[in-house]
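[job 4471] stage=fold_predict status=RUNNING
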Amino acid sequence: MMPRMSRFLCARLLALAFTGALITSCGGNPPPRPPRAIPTAAGLQPVHIAAVPKNAPPPVVAQSAIVIDVVSGRVLYAKNADVPRAVASTQKIVTALCVLDAGDIDKPVTIQSIDGACEPTNLNLKPGEVYPRRELTKVLMVKSANDVARALARDVGGSQESFAVLMNQKAASLGMRNSNFINPNGLPNPGQYSTARDMAIAARAAYRSPLIRSFTATKSFTFRFNDGRTRFIENTNRLLKTVPYCDGLKTGTTNAAGRCLVCSGSLNGRSVIVVVLKSTTPNVWKDSGKLLAWALERPASGS
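[job 4471] inference complete, writing structure tokens
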């Protein structure tokens, strides 16, 4: 039985081989295999790589500065961008990011007397008053009130020290490698520092938040206290009024930090962030305005 079965299988194999050879000799080919599909991520978009402007960047007085493209993160210009230094209230950008990370942006915050233990630039909130985190974060970014920063830090972190831990954790998660934060408002403190590059990284993260972005773009608004009093709040960023395409972010000033500004702008399909640190009173606006113009005032292109 087994030999007959073996002969039968051999005959079948020979027949198949002959048929295949016949098809090939007659010019026939087996049907082509369909191409194997290459999996792609849904909604994947090509990475936008910004081109560096062809003209040379303008000279700036600021001791540290950087310009980055918002979309790609590419550095378009840098001057002492990795030198650690005090950054004053520009670090409130990180404070705002931590408040948003905590969630519940409309949670009411009860002001305590310890919140006012700082100078200067206070909103002069009174103990017992209650305001939502959203309103406090807005006035933090527009007016740069230091007592508001302390109130938010205490509410989110439980204490100023615990909130500083959150700030440093946030900075590390963003890739800010040369920063150390000790308080939420940027007032001078030994061992507290950042760099122009790190602040650009923080600003890019804040720029992606529609809420923070809207706050930093607010030129002015009226703050209403619990007792019915109102206060007209003007943004400390003068470029919002003098440069049409400037759309945020945050100022900072202390004796140790000098005049600092982290600003953003959009024009001709491009968006950039400019950081200038340790400038002077007249030059902080000139430095920032010149760098925004250098990066943005050129024809739109695919680059």
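[job 4471] summary: The chain has one domain: 64-296.
[job 4471] exit 0
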